[in-house]
Amino acid sequence: MDVLGQLLNTTLVFSTALIFAALGGIFSERSGVVNIGLEGLMMFGAFAAAVGGYYAQDAGMGAWAPWIGVLCAMAVGVLGSLIHAVASITFKADQTISGTVINFLAAGSTLYMVKLLFDGAGETPLIDGFSKISVPWLSKIPIIGEGVFDSYPTTYLAIVLVLVIYFVLFKTPFGLRLRAVGEHPSAADTLGVNVNRMRYIGVMLSGMLAGMGGATITLTTTSTFAHNTISGQGFIAIAAMIFGKWNPLGAFAAAVFFGFSQAIRNYVQLFEWSQNIPQEFIFMIPYVLTIIVLVSAVGRSSAPSALGQPYDPGKR
Amino acid sequence: MYRLKKIFTTDSYIVPLVAIVLGFLVGAIVMLVGGYDPIAAYAALFKRVFGSPYDFGEAVREMTPLMLTGLAVAFAFRSGMFNIGADGQVMIGMTAATVVGIKLAFLPSFLLVPLAVIAAGLCGGLWAGFAGYLKAKRGINEVITTIMMNWIALFLANYIVRTFLLLPGQNRSENIPASLSMTFLNSTFDNARLHWGTLIAIAAAIFFYIFLWKTKQGYEMRAVGLNPHAAEYAGMNVGRNIVKAMFISGVFAGLAGAGEVLGVFHYQSVFAASPGYGFDGIAVALLGLTHPLGVILAAILYGTLTYGSAGMSFGADVPPELIRIVIGSIIFFIAAQGIVRWVLKPFYFKRKKEKVL
User: Fold this and answer.
1) Where are the domains of chain A?
2) Which one of A223, A278, B56, B220 is at 20 to 30 Å from A301 when CA atoms are compared?
3) How far apart are alpha carbons B144 and B268 in whole angstroms?
4) Which residues contact A258 (CB under 8 A, 6 or more apart)?
């Protein structure tokens, strides 16, 4: 076994959920709606995947059960994001507030339902989840083969989605409209784009993707949903989205960076020289590094200009 | 007198009140769907809080850090920033108070305690001020830096406790000799862990109000919060105001940390994960409409609900997580005031007709 390959592989396992959620954040924020609720949406997804996956497995669906879990997560993620959409788009509520609401409702309702469904248990029953798939003969390539081409199906899906979403956002009329609505809604409105509809779509897509992110965590890492299954990943995904300048490729790179720094924790301790460094400092590395990179990077972080503002056609 | 009347006749208080009622209703519906008895659950909740002097004191103890973190988030909001980092600032404040409280224990306590509290406020302020500095000088989004600094604070606090202050064989620091406890209330409140931090919190709220609405510096901060470009055009130093606002915000959070270690626990644990003070603070700030009086009231509500939720599970067998649904719904209805006004519409029409007659 090759250490580098393993490290790369673990990195991708940790990154996948962040990639999904950060992509979701991009859809919402590019359309002009702040989504601080990614954490809650991931929680909804993780919960739905654990429950849906459990019942599907119980019904004897075998290898298809995790996919049912993913579908449930997407659906519940969209439903959760609708709360955010209704409050912040239709009723013009402060977007930060309604995002925080999502986090609260998710933390409360998922655990409440777990206790209801499973007789007061604090977590869902263990499920099988996904198993890794190795791509024929590509997985024979040294390092990269073991690192990339022997991964969970969700990882492949995430990487494909990065490219698809990049294409959709920057090369299709739909993407142009979505971005226009986030940059200059009244101009977009003048040209016949339905601002609120585009924003609804953006927020719902973000719910779907964040839900998939949450599902990834239960189906590839924890195999169960408990109160601490999602603990800060949503906020890291927000950081990855900002770090990646609201661009799918940038967010992908940032998510992989955060995943890498999660993974390296486990590997650094294998080396003898690391024994002299207090473990807390090793844990700190990714967060310190992020700040350093942000400080030294040229150019300010450029959010969509209408981010956070409800669209009011009567206002100029 | 006229102003007082105005406060109670404008609908600024109607919407939050209706939102609270609607939030409880949502919670009741969720309980009914789950097959629980909502009336018994809410009765158990309030009985837990107001049932005994001890529980009442403990509920006040629970409200105290919420007031300060709520003020911290609200203050930053007023100056146009989103401080997600109150959590880290609380941890840094705790650590500073613990270090001073243990390492300078040779000082007489009338010096030691204020010193520990000041250290907590100062370190919390500097921790937040750094994020403000990065925003002012390099234009780095404070959301991302404060999220990162939460994690750094968690590990830094653990490192300091584990390396310099550890009680041998335990996962926590030595006991702190400095104490903020109100020991003279012990007999009245049956040894509930009441401490001076509550008064510090109320003083902070008063400072918040006077500073922001009665001083020139506060005026500048609000101007920067409302429109940084206009403020700059008017000759205000936007960058300096950002750093100052974040510093003050962090001081509030740091003081919350001092109250927790000096007044409640009297030691500092090694945290397995973020203790979550800051995220509660966001909710409290939003519930309180980022006004100091509102924040204090919101912290009282929030503290009552979270402390009472444990009573719900004992008294009515309802999962305590339900209370998060109630809190979330209340914030939702406050945020989406349109919904509340829509609910209230029939009543409003009635009242107006009466006036015409």
Assistant:
1) 3-297
2) B220
3) 27
4) A14, A15, A18, A236, A239, A240, A286, A290
Paired residues of B208 in beta bridges: none
Q: Where are the domains of chain B?
A: 65-314
Give B329-339 pLDDT, tens digit per residue.
998 888 777 77
Give the residues across from B181 on adjacent strands. Answer: B195
Closest to A98 measured CA to CA, from A163, A17, A150, A33: A33
Predicted TM-score of the model (pTM): 0.87
Q: Determine contact, residues A43/A106, Cβ cutoff 8 Å.
A: yes
Chain B residues whose beta carbon lies within 8 Å of the beta carbon of residue A116: 34, 319
Listed in sequence order, the residues at least 6 apart from B46 whose beta carbon sits closer than 8 Å to its beta carbon are B304, B308
Mean pLDDT of chain B: 87
Regions of chain B with pLDDT less than 50: 1, 8-9, 355-357
CA distance A248 to A256: 12
Q: How deeply is B270 buried, as exposed, middle or buried, from its count of CB atoms within 10 A (0-12, 13-18, 19+)?
A: middle
Question: pLDDT, tens digit, for every residue of A195-249?
Answer: 999 999 999 999 999 999 999 999 998 889 988 888 888 988 998 998 888 999 9
* Half-sphere exposure of residue A279: CA atoms within 13 angstroms, side-chain side: 8
Q: Contact, A262 vs A22, CB < 8 A?
A: no
Verify whether the Cβ–Cβ distance A108 to B338 is below 8 Å: no
Angle at B99 between CA B93 and CA B105, to 5 degrees: 130
Per-residue CA distances from A71 to A51, A81, A190, A217, B185 (Å): 11, 15, 37, 14, 56
Q: Which B residues, 111 through 140, put their C-beta within 8 Å of a C-beta on chain A? A: 134, 138-140
Residue of chain A nearest B134, judged by CA positions: A295
> Distance (Å, rounded) from C-alpha A271 to C-alpha A67?
38
Asked if B79 contacts B225 with a C-beta cutoff of 8 angstroms, the reply is: yes
Task: Return the axis-axis angle of helices A95-117 and A38-58, rounded to nearest 10°.
Answer: 20
List of chain A residues whose C-beta atoms are within 8 Å of the C-beta of residue B152: 284, 287-288
Are B331 and A235 within 8 A, CB to CB? no
User: Using CA atoms, how far apart are residues A178 and A185, in angstroms rounded to an integer?
Assistant: 10
Residue B338 at interface with chain A, using a CB cutoff of 8 Å: yes
Quote the tokens at residue A228: 């601490």
Which overall architecture, per CATH, does domain A3-297 show? Answer: Orthogonal Bundle (1.10)
Nearest Cα to Cα of residue A19 among A164, A155, A219: A155
